[in-house]
Design brief:
The complex is a heterodimer of chains A (about 80) and B (about 575). Chain A has about 80 residues and is mainly alpha-helical. Chain A has one domain (about 1-75). In chain A, about 60% of the residues lie in helices and about 5% in strands. The longest helix of chain A is centred in the C-terminal third of the chain and has 22 residues, at about 50-70. In chain B, about 75% of the residues lie in helices and about 5% in strands. Chain B has 20 helices and 3 strands. Chain B has helices at about 5-15, 25-45, 65-85, 95-110, 115-135, 140-170, 185-195, 205-210, 215-235, 240-260, 265-285, 285-320, 335-345, 355-370, 370-400, 410-430, 435-440, 450-470, 485-560, 565-585, and strands at about 45-55, 55-65, 480. In chain B, helix 3 runs antiparallel to helix 4 and helix 10 (about 240-260) runs parallel beside helix 15 (about 370-400). The chains are: A mainly alpha (about 80), B mainly alpha (about 575). Chains A and B meet through helix 1, helix 2, helix 3 and strand 1 of A and helix 10, helix 13, helix 15, helix 18 and strand 3 of B. Chain B: InterPro entries: ComplexI-like_HydComp, ND/Mrp_TM. Chain B: It is a multi-pass membrane protein. Chain B: Keywords: Cell membrane, Membrane, Oxidoreductase, Plasmid, Transmembrane, Transmembrane helix. Chain B: Its main location: membrane.
């Protein structure tokens, strides 16, 4: 059972199904976020449906590219024998 | 004392017989001690135990309250899991070190005064360093020494703080810092922050943990930083500095994790990130925030150990640790993949996993405290956590490019340990109430609201979308990343360079000057002095002595002992006196 689940995420033959399931999940989450009941919102953004989706995506992209910028341009990444 | 048996003593004295036991008796014994410790913690009653006086100070060996019990509970559970994971080890050394390490951590948790705390604090440093040295090899030993040096320096800072603080407050009892923060309090804070791996004092963690043994790293990931969170929560709740350092830390770890290629170093950077939530929670200092920090520490110990156990299993089986050399293991290690993913979902705070019911409490506490920036930063760090431990690491380690590595599932005891941790991660996520009941304050927080679930899933799944789109940008690279350990790794080298080059040259020049100019002059003047001494001073002294001797001899001849001679001399004397009188007086 566990093996089949893990294979589903690894094997190439399920790639199409995986992608469909993934996009379906994304759509469902955005729809759910629009439908949920918002009782009290502390901040402006909490009132915007779908905010978390946008923020999650932007965070991810920012983290990847800011980090790589720091690594490559600012010089945090070094050859493995740097300290030898 | 029947209602309190100190679990630290169980572990520290319990470690003594381990080297003398063999085979299945040793295994049974190794499991018995943590089991007894769990029992001791579950049955203990709040109160003060082991009060006394030492060097004129009040000492309190164990102060048992809700905060210490919740940490002791998870520490003893973790000790049992870690021991099961390490049960296959043929040699006893690491078991002994791990037990002393756990015992010391428990000693810190119950310490009611700073002296007891300090002793156990140093015990933790030494016992845990062994787990790095035990790995062997040049890299591990160098890193182990750095680890030890950093922790000893931190310990000295802490001791200085304890003494200064003791002098100014007149007491060594360990509790919330009262009044204005003095120099002593800041030194104590610095010592605690070093163990909590607060940047810039964080690099020891990411330097040493990946070099430790497979089983040792599991213990290390659980204890040092979390005892630091505990002591911060006890002594410094509501310290504003900690809010900002904690928030910065949460992002700091995530940024470095993008660059990392070593699987356990990536996980170590996520300790920095996750401890950031706890440090921020302690800094906010409201009841809800301290509850959040405490419960997050509880959940973190279990899921982080699970992640380290998963990565450790891969290293154990394949002997490789770099993401650039791993891939395609899901076919041969499906159980490990599944168990690792439970840890990954827990750390990423997916609904129905432990992180969801603990991390969100810290974020919610920041929201209630009107700290919008902190909320946004911590939410961004959550996205990064899933990006790395939930997506990047498993993708490149288990899926991705198939490197055709020979692999199999790890030994059964490893799988059992991972299984227990995984069950706990899910149990806490589904039924958070027992954990909430353990927390120091009454919990007024409901994690499972519609908005909270949909928002969390939104952040996480759209992070996954970003990962899928920019997958190639995340490909691990064969590099290492510079962190603040640069200052003492390269700094020490520059120091040695200065010692070897300019300083040594100066020293050489000085000795040349002394050899060519100063020394001959000194020899010459010494010789002249000698001559003067022999021919001048000695001659005068000898001459005077000789004259005295001769004078004495002559005088001796005058004393003949014949009465007539004396009578004659007296008459001559009287005549001479009369003549002198007659001549001079007139």
């Amino acid at each position: 059972m566990i093996k089949r689940v893990v294979d589903f995420f690894g094997d190439e033959e399920y790639a199409r199904q995986r992608r469909r399931l993934f996009y379906l999940a994304l759509v469902l989450i955005v729809v759910a976020d629009i439908l949920v009941f918002r009782e009290h919102a502390e901040y402006l953004w909490e009132r915007l449906p779908g905010w978390s989706a946008v923020y999650g995506f932007v965070s991810c992209v920012l983290l990847i590219f800011v980090s790589k910028f720091l690594g490559h341009r600012v010089g945090l990444m070094r050859r493995e024998d740097y300290y030898d | 004392m029947t209602d309190f048996i100190h679990p630290a003593l169980l572990f520290i004295f319990g470690a003594l017989p381990i080297p003398f036991l063999k085979g299945s008796i040793r295994k049974a014994y190794l499991l018995l001690i943590p089991a007894l410790a769990i029992l001791a913690v579950v049955t203990m009653q709040p109160g003060s135990y082991g009060e006394g006086r030492f060097i004129g100070q009040d000492i309190l060996i164990a102060n048992v309250d809700k905060l210490s019990i919740v940490f002791a509970t998870v520490f003893t559970i973790m000790a049992l899991i870690g021991t099961i994971y390490a049960l296959h080890l043929p040699r006893p050394g690491q078991h002994v070190a791990a037990f002393v390490y756990v015992g010391s951590a428990l000693g810190v948790v119950f310490a009611g005064d700073y002296l007891t705390l300090y002793l156990f604090w140093e015990g933790m440093a030494f016992a845990s360093a062994y787990l790095v040295f035990a790995q062997g090899g040049r890299q591990a030993i160098a890193s182990g020494f750095r680890y030890l040096m950093v922790h000893i320096s931190g310990g000295v800072v802490l001791l200085g703080g304890i003494i200064l603080n003791g002098l100014s407050t007149g007491s060594l009892l360990f509790g919330p810092m009262a009044g204005a923060m003095g120099a002593g309090a800041y030194l104590i804070l610095a010592g605690f922050m070093l163990n909590a791996a607060v940047p810039p004092l964080n690099a020891w963690l990411t330097d040493a943990y990946p070099e430790a043994t497979v089983t040792g790293a599991v213990f290390m990931s659980a204890f040092t930083t979390k005892t630091a969170v505990y002591v911060l929560a006890r002594a410094f709740p509501g310290t504003e500095l900690l809010v900002w350092l904690g928030t910065a830390m949460a992002l700091y770890g995530v940024v470095y994790a993008v660059l990392e290629n070593d699987c356990r170093r990536l996980l170590a950077y996520h300790i920095v990130s996750q401890v950031g939530y706890m440090v921020a929670g302690v800094g906010i200092g409201t009841e809800m925030a301290v509850n959040g920090a405490t419960s997050h520490a509880f959940a973190h110990i279990l899921y982080k150990a699970l992640l380290f156990m998963g990565a450790g299993a891969v290293i154990y089986v394949t002997g490789r640790r770099k993401l650039t050399e791993l891939g395609g293991l899901y076919k041969t290690m499906p159980l490990t993949v599944a168990l690792y993913m439970v840890g990954a979902f827990a750390i990423s705070a997916f609904p129905f996993f432990s992180g969801f019911v603990t991390k969100s409490m810290v974020v919610a506490a920041a929201g209630l405290d009107h700290r919008a920036l902190v909320v946004l930063a911590l939410t961004m760090a959550s996205s990064g956590t899933f990006l790395h431990t939930g997506l990047k690491l498993p993708y490149y380690m288990f899926f991705g490019t198939d490197r055709k590595l020979e692999a199999r599932e790890p030994p059964r005891n490893m799988l059992v340990a991972m299984g227990i941790a995984a069950v706990l991660c899910m149990a806490i996520g589904v039924f958070p109430q027992p954990l909430y009941a353990l927390l120091p304050y009454t919990v007024d927080f409901e994690p499972y609201t519609g908005v909270h679930v949909s928002e969390s899933l939104g952040v996480l799944m759209f992070t996954a979308l970003g990962f899928v789109i920019f997958l190639r940008a995340l490909d691990p690279e064969n590099t290492i990343s510079l962190d603040t350990d640069w200052f003492y790794r390269k700094g020490a080298r520059y120091f040695m360079w200065i010692a070897e080059r300019p300083l040594a040259r100066y020293e050489k020049a000085m000795s040349e000057v002394s050899e060519t100019a100063a020394l001959p002059f000194m020899y010459g003047s010494a010789r002249a002095g000698l001559r003067l001494d022999l021919n001048g001073v000695d001659a005068v002294v000898n001459g005077v002595a000789r004259s005295a001797l001769r004078g004495g001899g002559a005088l001796r001849r005058l004393q003949t002992g014949v009465v007539t001679h004396y009578a004659l001399a007296m008459i001559a004397g009287v005549i001479a006196a009369t003549v002198i009188f007659a001549v001079v007086w007139r």
